[in-house]
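Side project, low priority. Logging it here so it doesn't get lost.
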Amino acid sequence: MQKTPNNLRCHIGIFGRRNVGKSSILNALTGQNVSIVSDIAGTTTDPVEKPMELLPLGPVLFIDTAGIDDQGALGELRIERTRKVFDRVNLAIVVTDAGAWSEFERALVHELRTRNVPSIAVFNKSDMGSPGAEVLDELHDIGVHVEHTCAIQGKGIASLRQAIIRAAPEEFVSARQLWPISCLRRVCRARGADRQGGAKGKAHSSAGADDPRSA
């Protein structure tokens, strides 16, 4: 599955402000240190991509983006590169921390909705705070699923994986449902070839045993 072309994978973008734990989320989801994690805001400067198999969904491509609340000339460049990811994603994870949900996150979700990209709101660093009931009601009303995580401790990551699988666009789910059938056919063909080869081998052995020349 690692050889699956990226254009056939479900692209999952991770968006949010700087230092809310986007890279920690990616590392926890993949079980690898894909992105550098630091307390210094703006550590991720360019989108970081990680292809993997997310069962039972299938091949996916996670894209960790730079924080798009950056400032200055370098910040503008980071923001521009991050915004280009909007054009590529099929599913978005909008990360914030300690229960914070501001106009910044609302604007992100609105941008994704205008592009018909489903999104999941992740409140990371949940040990430091949680969103109020009005925020949860707001997200529920617009159809945005909510998850609570503490990525550096691995809390909530299993639930987030399941949320990603449920929120994935139907075309990727359908493609995954067809994949085992094709693989099964290949396995059956291979087993059939093995059986034929074994039968020929047995026939050859039997003929050799009856052949006087084998004595």
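Brief comment: Residues 48 and 90 are 16 Å apart (CA to CA).
Revisit when time allows.
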